[in-house]
Amino acid sequence: MNSFIGTYECKIDAKGRLLVPAPLKKQLSSSLEAGFVLKRSVFQPCLELYPMAEWNQMMEKVNGLNRFVKQNNDFIRRFTAGVKVVEIDNLGRLLVPKDLLLFAQMQKDLVLSSAVNIIEIWDKDLYEKAIDDSVVDFADLAEKVMGNQNDNRNELP
Of 22, 37, 25, which Cα lies nearest the Cα of 87? Predict the structure, then answer.
């Protein structure tokens, strides 16, 4: 599993192309040949860029769902809505399809943000709003999500 690092700003042109920043392109280099999957985020108005290997792992999980359960079928349809196979060209550009541009409300300034094994692509203003939103206190969230982890590394004998 790849683990990406960093948050990068870039611009998108009138044709929907963004130039992947060099430090991020270097991190993605092992995935350039296989390509990527670009999709709508489930929880936020942004896009998610999956290296093909990561997408295939996700699809293994999704393919394990029983399609005769309506809830599973509805999830699969919504999760894969708007999914596109994309490539980063030799100049380091990524073409974002129009329907995904509209979904993510992308204007001109973008933020590419690492999210462990995928890259989130945001309109800069929406990204700043999501980060600054004080609806959720991050300290409380961090404690709820990570505080109850017991992986035996920090236990006393």
Answer: 37
